[in-house]
From TrEMBL:
Higher taxonomy: Bacteria, Pseudomonadati, Planctomycetota, Planctomycetia, Pirellulales
PROSITE patterns per record: ILVD_EDD_1, ILVD_EDD_2
Domain Dihydroxy-acid/6-phosphogluconate dehydratase C-terminal positions: 438-586
UniProt organism field: Novipirellula galeiformis
This protein's name: Dihydroxy-acid dehydratase
One GO cellular component, as annotated: cytosol
Length: 656
């Protein structure tokens, strides 16, 4: 292959222009504008017409459409350059629809993009070390972009997936003095025949264990995404974040989980642009919407749908960005004790419907209606529509949209919508339990998290309690753990084991997501008989007896750092009371010693260390978020605490 000739002659040198005529017409300036506007505001008008905008319209109200768009598409949708994932592949169509609506009302639309990574693509790779830290970085860049358009009236934020959408919510909340509206980017459809995007991520481990053929793995890996755009088909972090955005009142009604690329989806962008304009006309801003009641409703609806545990990191971060009190583990526990899960959606059961069915069954408005009937929803909370939840629900229950969507679900899939969003009393009768439990114990004195509703029912005792007693298998990297699960190292993981994965919290590697492990345990034939305990976090699609967010993390001195292979671990999770414990009950080498004696005498695991490949900027994120409250505080930057800590450190060093 020959090298390109960088300095060869141009084919048509006369086509290289050195000057151009510039835009025609003139700016509609006034004495008041010239005397009082800043030079930046005036130069902005020059830039706008320089890009081809009609100078006669240049003084219209400015709106920023901020999205997570990724990739470059041809007009027919085929790729010029790929995006990282389907979640940001089609959102440019939403940007276009919103811009057209703004222009229809003589406004001036601006568009900016802060793309986002794919947690699915980075599972088991070094890219996962950047996943959670990216959220804070993106939120800061988004806020800077918002502030860098000084004359904007409002922001239409369009985002879909695991980190881009929480970042967008944090950015809009942090600039809440504007008419900000969020547009969830929707979901991809499941394939007509094949596995969903959660299950397909386990083809490697199932093939390695001889539970599927090469041909089956090749086929399933090709067809899992039924359509090219939207978030995954399960109620993971992406879909849960869409639900939470609507529950917060940040979206137009019935926005979360719409099928990407379809007319009902693009209409949301046009409606959202109009909603922002109406907010301006009413003199309303997002600050009027984001209240303590809004945070409460988000936690309530999160529990009702059985959402991702990652929102325990994101909801407090959104609250912090809005200047509200951050909910803690006790607040989440209290709400989960109030409301049983009554939505049947992947990855939870009993059936596990794809997210588009949840949308067609009524989505967030239908769930909110049930919660109002239970007396739990704070229905006087305001939404960006200018209406309260009470007013929206009253309209929803008799609306054409509700009837049409529910009828379509029955016609297209043969599914009764009341089997997707189940009446709460009926859900309780069927044994559906609350979503999230927060076990404590001598291995997690600061707490931990398990999605107790998704433990395999066959390993739950008759009293609705999961009990597990087994030997520890300790790993300090996810690579080693997944190799043992695949049977590539000896001894391989087997039924009865308790995997203890340490050093994977913020300080160790940026708090990676361990979906490689949790998905393998779900889909391997013996996986339901294995438990996992870790200071890492989980994907929203994770299921099983998987306990994460263990605090303190191993590298912060947590007792989990002192577990050794063969130690006897005991786990008990009450899915009704949402109480639980995770204890080391017997040491492998000293059965007669108490746990307290073991923790006092043992050093940390010899393999425990900061990930060698952890990026420097992720290390900085880990240090800063620890000062801001750590994982139980949402992994946010508490500027006052960081400044105080730096000042104290400087004084101490000067004293030395």
């Amino acid at each position: 292959m020959s090298e390109p000739n960088y300095f060869g002659a141009l084919e048509n040198v006369s086509a290289v222009q050195t000057k151009a005529a510039g835009p025609t017409g003139k700016l509609p300036l006034s004495d008041e504008i010239l005397r009082n506007w800043s030079s930046g505001d005036l130069f902005g008008l020059t830039q706008s017409v320089g890009m081809g905008f009609d100078p006669r319209r240049v003084l219209g109200d400015q709106y920023l459409i901020l999205s997570t768009q990724g990739g470059v598409r041809n007009p027919d949708g085929s790729p010029v350059a790929l995006g990282y994932h389907t979640g940001h592949w089609e959102v440019g169509l939403l940007v276009q629809a919103a811009a057209e609506q703004i222009c229809k009302n003589e406004g001036v639309p601006f568009a900016a993009f802060v793309s986002d990574p794919c947690d699915g693509r980075t599972q088991g790779t070094q890219g996962m070390f950047d996943s959670l830290p990216y959220r804070n970085d993106a939120a800061m860049v988004m806020r800077r972009l918002i502030r860098s358009l000084p004359r904007r009236k409002g922001v239409i934020g369009i985002a879909t997936c695991d980190k881009g959408l929480p970042a967008m919510m944090m950015a809009l909340a942090g600039c809440s003095g504007l008419a900000n509206v969020l547009v969830p980017g929707g979901v991809t459809l499941p394939p007509a025949v094949g596995e969903d995007a959660g299950k397909v991520q386990t083809i490697g481990v199932r093939y390695s264990r001889g539970e599927m053929s090469l041909e089956e793995a090749s086929l399933e890996g090709c067809r899992a995404c039924g359509t090219p755009g939207g978030g995954c088909q399960f109620l993971g972090t992406a879909a849960t974040s869409q639900v939470v955005a609507e529950a917060l009142g940040m979206t137009v009604p019935h926005a979360a989980l719409a099928p990407s690329g379809q007319p009902i989806w693009t209409k949301l962008a046009r409606d959202s642009a109009e909603a922002s304009r109406q907010m301006v006309l009413r003199g309303q801003t997002l600050r009027d919407v984001l209240t303590d009641d809004a945070i409460y409703n988000a936690m309530l609806i999160h529990a009702a749908v059985g959402g991702s545990t990652n929102l325990l990191l994101h909801i407090p971060a959104i609250a912090a960005a809005a200047g509200l009190k951050r909910p803690d583990a006790a607040a989440f526990r209290k709400i989960n004790q109030l409301v049983p899960r009554f939505v049947d959606c992947l990855p939870n059961g009993p059936v596990g419907h794809p997210t588009v069915r949840l949308f067609l069954a009524g989505g967030v408005p239908e769930v909110a209606w049930h919660l109002r009937e239970l007396g739990l929803l704070r229905a006087n909370a305001l939404t960006i529509t200018g209406q309260t939840w009470n007013e929206l629900i009253d309209q929803w229950i008799t609306s054409d949209r509700r009837q049409i969507c529910r009828d379509r679900l029955a016609q297209a899939d043969g599914v009764d919508p009341d089997e997707v969003i189940i009446a709460p009393a009926e859900a309780t009768r069927r044994g559906m339990t609350s979503t999230v439990c927060f076990p404590s114990g001598n291995l997690c004195p600061e707490g931990s998290v398990i999605k107790s509703t998704s433990i395999d029912p066959s390993v739950i005792d008759e009293d609705n309690i999961y009990r597990k007693r087994g030997p520890a298998r300790v790993f300090t990297t996810e690579r080693d753990a997944i190799a043992a699960i695949k049977g590539q190292t000896e001894p391989a993981i087997q039924a009865g084991d308790v995997i203890v994965l340490i050093g994977r919290g913020p300080l160790g590697c940026g708090m990676e997501e361990t979906y490689q492990i949790t998905s393998a345990l779900k889909y391997l034939s013996f996986g339901k008989d294995v438990a996992l305990i870790t200071d890492a976090r989980f994907s929203g699609v994770s299921t099983g007896a998987c306990i994460g967010h263990v605090g303190p993390e191993a590298l912060a001195g947590g007792p989990i750092a002192k577990v050794r292979d063969g130690d006897l671990i005991e786990i008990e999770i009450d899915r009704v009371s949402l109480s639980g414990r995770v204890d080391l009950v017997q040491a492998a080498e000293a059965p007669e010693s108490s746990a307290e004696e073991i923790f006092a005498s043992r050093p940390p695991h010899p393999g425990l260390c900061v990930e060698a490949n952890m990026p420097e900027d992720t290390r900085l994120w880990a240090a800063l978020q620890q000062v801001g409250g750590g994982t139980w505080g949402g992994c946010v930057y508490d500027v006052d605490e960081i400044v105080a800590t730096l000042q104290a450190g400087l004084k101490a060093r000067q004293g030395q």
